[in-house]
Amino acid sequence: MNGSHFSEFKPSSSVIIISDIVAICTTFLICEILLKKIDTGNLLNDSWHHSYIYLMIFLPILLLTLLSVGLYNGRLRVTSSGINSRVVVATSLAYLLVKSIYHVSLINELPSHFAEYNLIAVSASIMLLRFIISKTPYQNLGVKRILILGAGRRASLIEQYMRRKSDRIGIDIVGFVEMECDADGSIQNEKKIILNQPLETYVIDNNINEVVIACDERREVLPNQSLFSCRRSGVKIIDIIDFFERETGQVAVNHVYPSWIIYGSNNTYHSPIHHSLYWAFNAVFALCIFVLTWPFMLMTVVAIKFEEGWRAPVLYSQSRTGLDGKIFKIYKFRSMRTDAEKDGVKWAQLSDPRVTRVGAFIRKYRIDELPQLFNVINGDMDFVGPRPERPEFTKVFEHEIPYYNHRFNVKPGLTGWAQLKYPYGSNENDAVEKLKYDLYYIKNRGFLFDILILLRTAEIVIFGKGR
């Protein structure tokens, strides 16, 4: 994965992670000291020495569960009660996972009820920490001051797609420098700057950390010598496309050049060895998920039959476009009426009247997609990748949306970066928006990135988001 383009962990997120680690370890020590004072008759009990083993196992698992419920997402917008409920889910899940590890391993037992007391204390400390963070300007730590060189069409990407405060966590956009040959009137509501001094002087005087090249025309317009001086002074110079990609996790498909596709994509995942290893990982993971979810699948079958009769079909298959444009059959639990497409192929819509009552529930929690575990084992799909689209739509998109066929360079997935960042699509405009995230994933894909997406998908499943 290309770390320079990885946008999820902002400076503020790093501060939160470090604060959580300190809070968890401090709470553990306080809990241990207090319990030892109470348990004065067993101070020499060996089980106390093994409590630190518990901490070493519990800490990384808890950080992963906190990540999986979205608590390290710098753009998470929920109420205080929503934060607290996510903390409870994360700590409880971590507790159950660690207790399961203790149960199946040969690790010595902990002092009586220590894990339970520690769970309550850690949950309370993380909730308190989140409350303190919400009342302090923690996000100002590590903020980079950004100067945009340009105020035309390319620069307007920032105004269009980074309007909210949550879109600018970790950065402070000082202003947009008007340049010759920029399109008139593109920047409407941002601060414009007319330089009356050399660029490098303005950059130094205003403590600029990064200059973004966003002018519409560069030939004989860019102050190359000044930019060189800025770079020598430690100021980072970055192109608007790379800046936009880094900060939003998407690619500006209408502004990139063909060279971006040729030189920018990740080409390390096309060897036969990689395909075999990746299939093995996905197949084993699919079997593990099946073992955990087969009761829910069985209940879904019963629920569909109960609602629509015992002769009603349970599974639904569709043709989808996969790797290299090949057509395959995708399987889902049927969530719509059997006559849903009697008038032809249609986009699924929010609050679609064709969806059954059981279908609405299983779509909300992604249960309808569990049969696609077979597609993963069969090698048609991976767990992570662009969602496969119907051939009837892809034929249109290939002609009308730039770089759309680049999605076919990787296997489609059960979940993906676009599903996390832009969870619903019901028309061609939505397809364009999702493509921006799909191209970002294709360029930056890697094992750790896939793991992050899988963890973040747990947030969608647990809290029913994205439907």
UniProtKB/TrEMBL annotation:
<dbReference type="GO" id="GO:0089702">
    <property type="term" value="F:undecaprenyl-phosphate glucose phosphotransferase activity"/>
</dbReference>
<keyword id="KW-0472">Membrane</keyword>
<dbReference type="GO" id="GO:0009242">
    <property type="term" value="P:colanic acid biosynthetic process"/>
</dbReference>
<comment type="similarity">
    <text>Belongs to the bacterial sugar transferase family.</text>
</comment>
<feature type="transmembrane region" description="Helical">
    <location>
        <begin position="12"/>
        <end position="31"/>
    </location>
</feature>
<dbReference type="InterPro" id="IPR003362">
    <property type="entry name" value="Bact_transf"/>
</dbReference>
<protein>
    <submittedName>
        <fullName>TIGR03013 family PEP-CTERM/XrtA system glycosyltransferase</fullName>
    </submittedName>
</protein>
<keyword id="KW-0808">Transferase</keyword>
<feature type="transmembrane region" description="Helical">
    <location>
        <begin position="83"/>
        <end position="102"/>
    </location>
</feature>
<dbReference type="Pfam" id="PF02397">
    <property type="entry name" value="Bac_transf"/>
</dbReference>
<dbReference type="InterPro" id="IPR017464">
    <property type="entry name" value="Sugar_tfrase_EpsB_2"/>
</dbReference>
<dbReference type="GO" id="GO:0016020">
    <property type="term" value="C:membrane"/>
</dbReference>
<feature type="transmembrane region" description="Helical">
    <location>
        <begin position="52"/>
        <end position="71"/>
    </location>
</feature>
<dbReference type="InterPro" id="IPR017475">
    <property type="entry name" value="EPS_sugar_tfrase"/>
</dbReference>
<feature type="transmembrane region" description="Helical">
    <location>
        <begin position="114"/>
        <end position="133"/>
    </location>
</feature>
<keyword id="KW-0812">Transmembrane</keyword>
<feature type="transmembrane region" description="Helical">
    <location>
        <begin position="277"/>
        <end position="304"/>
    </location>
</feature>
<keyword id="KW-1133">Transmembrane helix</keyword>
<feature type="domain" description="Bacterial sugar transferase">
    <location>
        <begin position="280"/>
        <end position="462"/>
    </location>
</feature>
